Amino acid sequence: MTTAAAGARSGRRCHNALNSLHSTHYFSPDLGRELAALGVTDARAVNFAVRAAALGPVGAGAVTAAFYNYKHDLVARHVPAVWRTVTPEQALAARARAVDATLRRLLGEETLASAEMSEAAGLALRAAEGCTRSARPLYSAHADLPVPDAPHLAYWHAATLLREHRGDGHLAALMTAGLDGLEALVTHTATGKGMAPKWIFTTRGWTREEWDAATGRLRDRGLIDAAGGLTEEGTALRERIERETDRLDAAPYAHLGAEGVARLTELATAFARTALGAGAFPADLLAGR
Question: pTM score, two decimals?
Answer without folding.
Answer: 0.95
